[in-house]
Amino acid sequence: MQNDIGQTGQALQGGRPVKVGNQRTDPFAAPERRLRGIAQQGKNPVASEQMGKGATGNVAAPDNEKCLHGRILPESPHNGDSMGFKITIQPSQHTFLCEAGESILDAALRQGLAMPYGCRDGACGACRGRVLSGSVDTGKAQEHALSATDRTAGFALFCCASPKEDLTIEAREMRSSLDIPAKTLPARVEKMTRAAPDVMLIELKLPACERLQFLAGQYIDILLKDGRRRSFSLANAPHDDSRLQLHVRRVPEGHFTNHVFTAMKERDLLRINGPHGSFFLREESAKPMLLVAGGTGFAPIKAVIEHAIAENQQRPMTLYWGGRRKEDLYLADLAEGWARKHPGFRFIPVLSESAPEDRCNGRTGFVHVAAMQDHPDLSAHQAYVCGAPAMVAAARRDFVGQCGLPEEEFIADSFEFSSDTRTNPPPQR
Predict the structure, then answer these.
(1) Contact between 65 and 247 (Cβ < 8 Å)
(2) Is 396 within 8 Å of 389 (Cβ atoms)?
């Protein structure tokens, strides 16, 4: 989903302090706790963070960029047992591995399982579930958040509890957009990066006590002071939620996107509402995935791909990303990296107005046509398509009508743009 915004930026640190009594506190500062992740024995791995959302042009739409921000994780707390503990979720029967000292929720999210949560610090109780077998270290936060009755009955807060042995737990999993209620939150502009002449990558940071749960591919609304909304897809996968990443394309005469490119600065505060949208990874399917993005339509596609990789899905994935010129494929290096690291993933760049200096190894023409040429029979596929309305409409018509794609397997997000010069601009997603 995309709206009008964009601009330049650098790294931003803490937010404006708020005076409380004799202390100055920052509601956006992270609490004192260990960063957890996929830590390897004997060294500090880097957890890459990205950004996302935007809009595209026509059948072959423009740009997108990517910003990777490395975060050094602590050495693995697991002493000797490199496999970790096996966690089985009831009633789904899904299983995952959890490092010693790692919270059950962190391990589940890291491996692509969408368990409910809110603050991730033991304050809200949204991650409450029951330990059916095995024992856990509950953490001090649970002493105040759970009643003695709950603790006796085997309940735990999975954002704080870590396993002492293999576990079977009872927990609800989020598999539908209806499972996650939308909420309104403040957000601080943490980082702005110009990915292309008309594309800005924005990182938003939520208050330390808040997290936004979402499904890979969904979008948020930015709430403007005049009551209008501007919608942008989340480009990061759900497990990588320490920042919300947006890809913003500048829209001519766009009120909000012009503000982004000319006046917005790091540390500015916004209000957001979300998550929204029915565009998200259908995890229950085993069909090969055809992913087609035009311009900043790459943002939700990026989230879907990164989530599938985190889940260790074995489904073949082929990404066609279209732009007018090479600079419009602003995160092409990221997509090429996926192709190098994951044998089941292919990336085909497509340019509609290629110039000799582009020296692109991909294809020319319309992005959905290139996909059809390589996949004349889509009857056994699932298609994820994001971009301008004309591109999405053409892909739906041709994939279903000419290539045999089942109608229900066409999953799309059509980006509408608002230019505020119109009396009734189209709704933004």
Answers:
(1) yes
(2) no
Residues 89, 330: contact at Cβ < 8 Å?
Answer: no
Beta carbons of 290 and 383 less than 8 angstroms apart = yes
Residue type, 171: A
CB 297 within 8 A of CB 199: no
Scanning 161-296, the segments in alpha helix (DSSP H) are: 255-262
Rg for the chain, CA atoms, rounded:
22
Q: Is the peptide bond before 62 cis (omega within 30 degrees of 0)?
A: no
Model confidence over 163-195: pLDDT tens digits? 999 999 998 776 666 678 889 999 999 999 999
Rounded Cα gap, residues 162 and 135, in angstroms: 9
Which tens digit of pLDDT belongs to each residue from 363-408? 999 999 999 999 999 999 999 999 988 899 899 999 999 999 999 9
SS3 assignment, position 393:
helix
Q: How far apart are CA 212 and CA 174, in angstroms?
A: 13
The per-residue pLDDT for range 131-149, each reduced to its tens digit, is 999 999 887 666 666 778 8
Q: Name every residue whose Cβ is closer than 8 Å to that of residue 131 and which is 6 or more positions away in sequence.
A: 154, 155, 156, 161, 167, 168, 169, 170
- Other CB atoms within a 10 A radius of the CB of residue 88 amount to 16
Strands 345-351 and 269-276: unpaired
* Calpha distance 198→219 (Å, rounded): 20
Q: What is the DSSP letter of 237?
A: -
Q: What is the pTM of this model?
A: 0.64
Do 8 and 198 form a contact (C-beta atoms < 8 A)?
no
Burial 400-418 (b: 16+ CB within 10 A, else e): beebebeeebbbbbbbbbb
DSSP class of residue 188 equals E
Most confident among 72-81, 104-113, 235-244, 284-293 (mean pLDDT): 284-293
- Closest Cα to residue 321, out of 347, 340, 356? 347
Q: What is the DSSP letter of 381?
A: -
Beta strands in 155-256, from DSSP E residues, in sequence order: 155-157, 162-163, 167-170, 183-196, 199-205, 219-223, 229-233, 244-249
Residue with tokens 């018509």: 397
Cα–Cα distance for residue pair 395/399, rounded to 1 Å: 6
* Largest separation between any pair of C-alpha atoms in the chain: 71
The conformation of residue 11, written as its DSSP 8-state character, comes to B
Q: Is 171 left (phi over 0), alpha (psi -120 to 50) or beta?
A: beta
**Between the CA of residue 217 and those of 44, 96, 159, 234, 298, what are the distances in Å?**
29, 23, 23, 6, 10
Q: What is the dihedral of CA 338, 43, 208, 277, to 10 degrees?
A: 20
